[in-house]
Amino acid sequence: MSVTSTSHSESLDDDSLHDLVRDALGKISLSANELDAFIASLSSRHRNVVRVRREVAPESLPFPTTPVPWYSLGYRCESTESRPSKELAYAAGDYYVQDAGSLLALAALQADHPVALKNQTVCDLCAAPGGKATAILESLESSGFLLANEPIRSRVPALLHNLSRTGSDRFAISQLDPDDLAKQLTGCFDVVVVDAPCSGQALLSRKRQSISALSGHQIEHSASRQQRILSAATRLLRPCGKLVYSTCTFAAAENEAQIDGLLGSHDFTAESIPSLQPYASPITPGCYRLWPHQHDCAGSFAASLIQGEASWSAKTFRNNKPFKTTVELDQWFTDSGQVHRYFGSDSSLYAIPIDAPVWVERVAKLGPEIAHRTGKVWKPAHAAALQRGTLLRSRQTLDVDHETAAQYLSGAPIPCPSRGWTVVQYHGRPLGWVKGDRGLGKNHLPTASRFTQLSPPR
């Protein structure tokens, strides 16, 4: 999600602040006591929660938890002494750490339901840094496909890193303006997710936004940009497709008003989600809100709409010419090459399932990296080591205990009886590559993927 940032702050007396907040909320009306509580909560920091993989049992986590009410795969760490991001389970990809409010959009998408996204082609239109995209990708499992679009180039590396950590190969990353993407892929998606750039009022508690996020100018500017993005999103959808819209702000002009506009000018109907009724907006059906003073999170907004019969026809595409690669993949993998399609550059090679949509290579800049080149030498990519549940298989694996896994994740070499490239695993979960020689495995873990000071086993 992109956020409009500001560099200045303002000092306001209580009456002026209350007036500013009331104006920012617009049609959303709070009682005097609730308004006081809401304003006070904007300066309170809320602890992140963990979003687990579907196959991970919460009782197996290395800290006590309680469920997040609005999302069945979300859990709060109940130990103030535990740091979920310092656990080996996190390094091994068992869960993702994020604000509880960001799970509302996933709940509107019903991404925690086992079959909700089965065989679906999904576009996350404003995808970085990947909190929602990674959940979508994990929900797809062995079917469907995700196009994660991020127009801001500086945000793409974090997105690719997070998507690769899921171990899935059913994604690609594009870097197009939403309108340009809609022109190329009209009517190609079953689901479009728009986590829209916004005034970011929920970020006040994290000191990542200033009081000017509440200003009328900021709200108006964000609302105008959101309308343009939503116009593109509607054209990306197939008939009867689903649009999920979310923000991390409280202004009705950026939230319910955007949905009212779609309901009034397009063939959309609001989707009612029974499990989210406790969080229903008081002014627009199909809209849901979380508040920092009520729900122990930074706050968020989400809505789910179903499109009727679109007035445009879906684009059609011819099959792509096979991408030719000279990289000898069978030295690292047992994959026969008949189950993947490849694309890439002189320095990176990406592999997607053979059943991925035919248009992927037309818009993709990045994807599941399988190999990269250093100088004149091709090496297996870190992302390829992390794949799980895919048809890509490394020729050699090495299972290690907690102590050795922690040593490996710090970037140090570890004992390795095998020669050549080997994937290090902890309880069957892949961590990365070593290159074994004479009983020692040279560590090939990227710096960005290293973890230091991991918590000891409990």
UniProtKB/TrEMBL annotation:
Transmembrane segments: none annotated. SUPFAM superfamilies: S-adenosyl-L-methionine-dependent methyltransferases. It comes from Novipirellula rosea. CDD domains: AdoMet_MTases. GO terms for biological process: methylation. Belongs to the class I-like SAM-binding methyltransferase superfamily. RsmB/NOP family. Gene3D superfamilies: 2.30.130.60, Sun protein, domain 3, Vaccinia Virus protein VP39. The lineage of its organism: Bacteria, Pseudomonadati, Planctomycetota, Planctomycetia, Pirellulales. Residues 25-308 form the SAM-dependent MTase RsmB/NOP-type domain. The active site is at C248. Pfam families: Methyltr_RsmB-F (PF01189), Methyltranf_PUA (PF13636). The keyword S-adenosyl-L-methionine applies. One of its GO terms (molecular function) is methyltransferase activity. The keyword Transferase applies. This is SAM-dependent methyltransferase. Keywords: Methyltransferase, RNA-binding, S-adenosyl-L-methionine, Transferase. InterPro entries: MeTrfase_RsmB-F_NOP2_cat (IPR049560), MeTrfase_RsmB-F_NOP2_dom (IPR001678), Nol1_Nop2_Fmu_2 (IPR027391), RCMT (IPR023267), SAM-dependent_MTases_sf (IPR029063). S-adenosyl-L-methionine binds at C126, A127, A128, P129, G130, G131, K132, E150, D177, D195.
